[in-house]
């Protein structure tokens, strides 16, 4: 029975990943195809895993990937003025953009 439940959970997170990537990359066919291929490859690579601890770890990573896509990926679209626009969704509230910190040159004395 546990195996059936685990299989259902795996299928559920697989479908959630595919739905989430469809929302994140709507209109970007190249990314839709690439991300779907990556998701399928990851699941295919681990399809024979039966160890409960390893399954739990893999499912955790899959759920983290869903959260990452939902809360950290926004799509910028080129508008008619030649600028990129980003439409933030409610799930992006409170997020901030992180800019890389430039390398500091060593101080000489």
From TrEMBL:
Keyword terms of this UniProt record: Chaperone, Mitochondrion
Pfam families: Complex1_LYR (PF05347)
InterPro entries listed in its UniProt record: Complex1_LYR_dom, Complex1_LYR_LYRM7, MZM1/LYRM7
Subcellular location: Mitochondrion matrix
Keyword Mitochondrion appears in the UniProt entry: yes
Residue ranges annotated for the Complex 1 LYR protein domain, each copy included: 9-67
Region annotation (Disordered) ranges: 89-109
Identification of the protein by name: Complex 1 LYR protein domain-containing protein
Organism listed in the record: Sphagnum jensenii
């Amino acid at each position: 029975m546990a195996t059936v439940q685990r299989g259902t959970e795996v299928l559920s997170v697989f479908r959630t990943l595919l739905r989430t990537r469809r929302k994140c990359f709507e209109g970007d066919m190249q990314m839709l195809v690439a991300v779907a291929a990556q998701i399928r490859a990851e699941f295919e690579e681990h399809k024979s895993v039966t160890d409960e601890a390893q399954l739990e770890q893999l499912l955790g990573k899959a759920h983290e990937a869903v959260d990452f896509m939902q809360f950290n990926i926004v799509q910028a679209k080129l508008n008619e003025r030649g600028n990129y626009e980003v439409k933030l969704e409610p799930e992006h509230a409170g997020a901030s953009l992180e800019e890389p910190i430039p390398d500091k040159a060593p101080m000489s004395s």
